[in-house]
Amino acid sequence: SPSRSSVIVIGAGVSGISAAKVLAEKGIEDLLILEASDRIGGRIRKENFGGVSVELGAGWIAGVGGKESNPVWDLAAKSSLRTCFSDYSNARYNIYDRSGKIFPSGIAADSYKRAVESAIQQLRIQEANPCSRDLYKVSEPPSAPKTPIELAIDFILHDFEMAEVEPISTYVDFGEREFLVADERGYEHLLYKMAEDFLFTSGGKILDSRLKLNKVVRELQHSRNGVTVITEDGSVYDADYVVLSVSIGVLQSDLISFNPSLPRWKTEAIQQCDVMVYTKIFLKFPYKFWPCGPGKEFFIYAHERRGYYTFWQHMENAYPGSNILVVTLTNGESKRVEAQPDGETLKEAMEVLRNMFGPDIPDATDILVPRWYNNRFQRGSYSNYPIITNDQDFHDIKTPVGRIFFTGEHTSERFSGYVHGGYLAGIGTGKALLEEMEKDKERKSESQTFL
Ligand code: FAD
């Protein structure tokens, strides 16, 4: 049919855009990008809050200053994205208890050291039993955290980063520094810059008809000859190939049906991957009441419930005078808070802050609670492969099914969960598809010579 495209890219997050760019630059002009929401960017998303631009999704460029340069850091440099160095390492010296006392640094350092040792020990046990995937869930860790400070440190270690426990490829390859994006144009500006290279833009807007927003893909009919894509509004698009860049959470949901169904090796691998929910709650205040200055950007609240408003950051380094605090929740706490009215969350957060800083601090004047889990185009924040990954599952998640190619951060072998993971995955998938198209062309011309 005349409306048939060579390739349809589903999703306009960083991986979809980078895959489309690779294809366009290699001469695949008749591509189409279908995006469910009303914007590009996906999990890279800024919003104006309290007079500044805050990042609801990815906030940091992680992995900077090492032997290789992080490609996202290079993109940021090229568009002079404003960033700000973040040093988490001091957070452990700013641990508050419920009465507002800061734990002495010796005690904090000791607890931290013990938590790291325990995590390493746990990892060795897992390594020795590589087959039992759920070992961590069934067996009690060697010295399970129990006191509020132990629980707080356990949360920081496990729900943030395990870099001190096991080398993480991002830091090994690209360096250990992290930079917070603090730019009014947002982290997503990098995506617009990429899009500009291959889509028609004018006045800072993408006006190319090959990018279609508000197109929620609901069904993929696929065969040896091509793929038919059907969207929620009843549009039908035909293509030779599809690049599917939706998140692992969306793949686990029933948003998109496949006809015929995906093979079992595929669906089983998809279901095996854990999805992390990570929520940054922003609070605006009339004035500052928290300590600022060197080593004070991050602080921790130790509560008897693990992950209860544990990890705090002030935004004075990024935006001086903004009077904004950010608290990060994960998984169960994220889901709980997503399900309740924001006013309730504000009350909880204020109670925690009054425990830390006293009864006289002012109420927040505004709150922003992103809902990544309940967003049907996301269903979580990022993929969370266990440190000891089953390589087969990973391989299966990434492998194409006929003419459907899979991309996204969850298909990045070394950098899953990160922006650079999504970016590099998109490039990799784009290249793999180009190779396949080349082979297909050869096969066709061979069969023609035989005819
Ligand atoms: P996405 O950005 O999810 O793109 C997929 C696109 O598909 C979306 O635009 C979605 O709307 C669209 N879509 C979904 N379903 C359909 C459908 N049915 N039809 C059409 N389109 C559909 N990474 C870092 O490097 N540093 C960080 O500090 C960091 N922090 C994070 C904090 C949070 C709260 C979150 C959520 C993520 C964070 N990440 C961070 C991870 C990073 O944001 C992601 O790894 C990356 O943006 C994923 O890009 P992607 O292209 O794979 O997926």
Structure commentary:
The radius of gyration is 23 Å and the shape is globular. 34% of the residues lie in helices and 22% in strands. The chain contains 13 helices and 23 strands. The model has no long low-confidence stretch (mean pLDDT 93). The longest helix has 32 residues, at 419-450. With 451 residues, it is of the alpha/beta class. Strand 9 (201-202) and strand 10 (205-206) form a beta hairpin. Helix 1 (14-25) runs parallel beside helix 13 (419-450) and helix 3 (105-128) packs across helix 5. The strands form six sheets. Strands 1, 2, 11, 12, 13, 14, 15 and 23 form an eight-stranded mixed beta sheet that branches. A six-stranded mixed beta sheet has the order 7-18-19-20-17-21. The site of flavin-adenine dinucleotide has 41 residues, from helix 1, strand 5, strand 17 and helix 13.
Primary descriptors:
single chain, 451 residues, alpha/beta, 8-stranded mixed β-sheet, 6-stranded mixed β-sheet, 13 helices, 34% helix, globular, binds flavin-adenine dinucleotide
- Roughly what fraction of the amino acids lie in strands? 15-25%
* Straight-line N-to-C gap: 25 Å
Number of helices: 13
What would you call the shape? Answer: globular
Radius of gyration: 23 Å
Mean residue pLDDT = 93
Count of beta strands: 23
Ligands present:
flavin-adenine dinucleotide
> SS-based structural class?
alpha/beta
Largest sheet: 8 strands, mixed
What is the percent of helical residues?
A: 25-40%
